[in-house]
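Hi everyone, sorry if this is the wrong subforum. Our group has a chain we'd like a structural model of before ordering constructs, and none of us has done structure prediction before. Sequence below.
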Amino acid sequence: MKNKFKPTRDGNYYFGLVLLVVASASIIWAFFFDGFEPKDFLAYFLIYAWGFALLLKSDSEYRLKRLEEAVTVLQNRLDRLEAGFTQEAEAQNGASMQGERITAEVETEKAIAEENTPDRPAEQNEEGEQKVGDSCGK
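Answer:
Right subforum, don't worry. Here is the predicted structure as tokens:
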């Protein structure tokens, strides 16, 4: 006969279940054999309490473990999403910075071209020589 019992929880869970079954069987035994004395009732109560505490502890740990796994998966997805947005923003900033640099270069070239027009003489320094960088100097 194949064993169909495949435990997925920790040992405390199954031990707690066994204790609850034992406590239930002992109460049924006490009902039929008049075993309801205070000391016996205390033993039944303690067995039930122990079994229930183990079940509660094990179930809480199991749920917390599942919750931590779900939060970890969500955190990983969020990190990947943030990394994608950061890379996209850096690419956009890089493209805009490059566009601004090209625009600045074009404006500088236009300003230089406007300075060196034939109707406007090139600037000269104190000795009467043209400044370096002027292309229309005579």
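For your construct planning: Residues 75 and 81 are 10 Å apart (CA to CA). Residues 38-115 form the longest helix (78 residues).
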